[in-house]
């Protein structure tokens, strides 16, 4: 592979001149368009005459080698008198690649609805649900009644700023924690994990049963049980739980948040309760803080609010989610550095220290900017802008707080720029913003490590448009952006040059897809279990 082989400007205007990235949606949409044309006995030559378009162009469009313009798409569907849903989807597909930012977002929503109505749901995890259900029945002597799937996430940009109430841009991914659950007729929770490294645990439901801060898997389960018990009150009903998952642990992909979300939703399902998504997001964030990391609410929000093939801009106080369609020609490759990023011990202390440093920096910047005592980062940015605030920080803050505040201010600006680059399909610009984010996390926020730096640079050298550490840092993964046609080659070369020399497992390099958020599904039912 060559460095940045064909990146350049990736604006929507140039997309029609390149072969389209293959996708299930594109293939099915074009298949149905061709079927509808043949059913109406309309040749492409006759269609060309009626629309005033070149027959060659129509052939290329139908073969998936050229994008139609919105005008051509509209005339095409009008000439063939297509069903409304198919006509709207075809025109939306054209607008997704040729329209402005707002048109692209609206078109993506139309296509998302058409996809869900006409295509099978994509794989959300590599975990075999039937195997999980079999293991549950063997372990607890009765079938599960519900299956919960809670995805991990990749934060594309906006690192370490959610706890400063600034927007971030993550996506849920097609790796998840899967939970099989069955209600009990007492107040006990019995939990097992298919991964035998995690010992079974058992405890009574009690809102006062505060988890320890060890970071063990059972501490997250106790945190989930504590907030569910506090929220739902009496009568308390326990549950049997079996967990499986393919979100790598200590990788910066939010396996802990997926665990908490999965456990909370499973315990709610056992009680027959379905809470509003926004409330669940807040509850799960609060529950995870019980384990000792003073994190923001991004991980829980995207785990519950992810959307297939979309990133989501998440805002805070109040919580808001704005889906942003990912271009079909983009792919994200995740690679593990080999350094574990446990949310316990030194890493937890370093994370919480940065939360405190940001609060101190904000207090000093308020005084320098003559702002209200209660003004937050958002208000300062709205009034003064990032550049002016950085200048104030350079004049009045101690060196460490200057570095922390500079990252926060500039990363917030990068999120807004990334949203625009995403809407314009500008791969090169989005990649450059990822590179800048990594540099800031390395130099100003000081949460990287040599392995992350080297791995991100290797991804760039192998052709990635951009790469950055993902998650809290101190180890874990990098995420690299590239064209779809380069993704598997990039993953293979990272595996050969990084993973294999370090004897890292096969899963440590993955091409990930943006996934829907967490879900609960009812399966076999039966009387409550007590053993």
What this model shows, in words?
The chain is 48% helix and 15% strand. With 531 residues, it is of the alpha+beta class. It has three domains: 12-118, Orthogonal Bundle (434 Repressor (Amino-terminal Domain)); 129-324 and 517-522, 2-Layer Sandwich (Ribosomal Protein S5, domain 2), CATH 3.30.230; 330-512, 2-Layer Sandwich (Alpha-Beta Plaits), CATH 3.30.70. The strands form three sheets. The chain has a six-stranded mixed beta sheet with strand order 4-3-5-2-1-12. Strands 9-10-8-11 form a four-stranded antiparallel beta sheet. It has a two-stranded antiparallel sheet with strand order 6-7. A hairpin with a 4-residue loop joins strand 6 and strand 7 (320-325). Helix 1 (24-39) crosses helix 5 (84-98). The N and C termini lie far apart (58 Å).
Short description:
This protein has 531 residues and is of the alpha+beta class. It has 3 domains: 12-118, 434 Repressor (Amino-terminal Domain), CATH 1.10.260.40; 129-324 and 517-522, Ribosomal Protein S5, domain 2 (2-Layer Sandwich); 330-512, Alpha-Beta Plaits (2-Layer Sandwich), CATH 3.30.70.890.
Task: Name the descriptors.
Alpha-Beta Plaits, disordered N terminus, alpha+beta, disordered C terminus, 531 residues, six-stranded mixed beta sheet, Ribosomal Protein S5, domain 2
Q: State the helicity in percent bands.
A: 40-55%
Q: Tally the helices: what do you get?
A: 18
Report the uncertain regions: 1-20, 526-531
Structural class: alpha+beta
Radius of gyration: 25 Å
Overall outline: globular
Q: Based on the structure given, which CATH architecture of the largest domain is correct?
A: 2-Layer Sandwich
Taking the sheet with the most strands, its summary is: 6 strands, mixed
How many domains comprise the coordinates?
3
Number of strands: 12
Adjacency order of strands in the biggest sheet: 4-3-5-2-1-12
The topology string of helices and strands comes to HHHHHHHEEEEHEHHHEEEHHHHHHEEHEE
Overall CATH class of the largest domain:
Alpha Beta
Q: Report how far apart the termini are.
A: 58 Å
Kindly report the CATH topology of the largest domain. Ribosomal Protein S5, domain 2
Strand percentage lies at: 15-25%
Mean pLDDT comes to 90
